[in-house]
Design goal:
By secondary structure, this protein is α+β, with helices and mostly antiparallel strands. It has helices at about 30-40, 70-75, 110-120, 145-150, 185-195, 225-240, and strands at about 20-25, 45-50, 60-65, 80-90, 90, 105, 125-130, 135-140, 140, 160-170, 175-180, 200-210, 215, 220. It is built from six helices and 14 strands. Strands 1, 2, 3, 4, 7, 10, 11, 12, 13 and 14 form a ten-stranded mixed β-sheet that branches. A two-stranded antiparallel ribbon has the order 5-6. The relative contact order is 0.22.
């Protein structure tokens, strides 16, 4: 069976492109930006992302190049859609799997009806406190740096909007979900608060961004397939100039 060759559009990176990337798990958003920026060399091209994804999350990352980097704030402000998994019965300091569980709870009495009803409580505008293990800055320093030193930090809460919160599967202790939310929503905090509302515990054990505004994950490139394409185009352009 012959493999279908990937067809790339005629990019104009200097004038500006919006690139949809499927960020792999365990890559930082900056890792993706760095890979793409290096592939453009020797061009000194502006490259930036519109909305950070945590290292343990995968999925849609919007990358802007050239003159379209001026539009990053606009893309970043759009609503997001995520799918993922909460693990009930425990909490972690980071609200995800970056840190080990520190408190444990009995899940044997939890029912599907309770779980579905709890999800409904989060739909609408809610108050949310960002995780201490986050990239937010307080006094000029990232919160996760303070957290790793064991500092106790008072983090101000914020108002965010959850427009859709759907429980898609329950196989305790794991609960799968789909969420549509506003800019600035921390799904890790949603996991922690979800467990708290159940008089239990929960942490985020898987997360994938599937949509940002009108951009969808099914239209995204894999990082290295795009990097390799850019390098090939660069080689062709250099050889034509000789």
């Amino acid at each position: 069976m012959t493999e279908t060759k990937k067809i790339f559009p005629d990019f104009n990176f200097t004038e500006g492109e919006v690139l949809l990337i499927n960020k792999p798990c365990n890559w930082t958003s900056f890792d993706v930006v760095g890979k793409l920026r290096n592939s453009f060399k020797p061009l000194k091209l502006k490259v930036g992302h519109a909305g950070t994804l945590d290292p343990l999350a995968s999925g849609l990352l919007i990358i802007c190049t050239g003159k379209l980097t001026k539009q990053i704030d606009t893309y970043q402000a759009e609503e997001k859609e995520y799918t993922g998994t909460f693990t009930l019965g425990a909490t972690t300091p980071s609200y995800d799997m970056e840190t080990e569980p520190d408190n444990f709870f009995d899940t044997t009495t939890l029912t599907a009806a309770q779980i579905y009803a709890t999800a409904l409580l989060f739909i609408g505008e809610i108050s949310q406190q960002p995780p201490i293990y986050s990239a937010l800055k307080i006094d000029g320093e990232r919160l996760y740096e303070k957290a790793r030193r064991g500092e106790n930090i008072e983090i101000p809460s914020r108002r965010v909007t959850i427009s859709e919160f759907e429980i898609t599967d329950i196989s305790l202790p794991q609960v799968q979900f789909r969420v549509v939310c506003s800019k600035g929503t921390y799904i890790r905090s949603l996991a922690f608060d979800f467990g708290k509302k159940l008089n239990n515990g929960a942490y985020l054990s898987a997360l994938r961004r599937t949509r940002s505004g009108n951009f969808k994950i099914e239209n995204a490139f894999e990082v290295m397939e795009l990097v390799n394409h850019i390098k090939e185009v660069n080689k062709m352009q250099i050889s034509l100039k000789k």
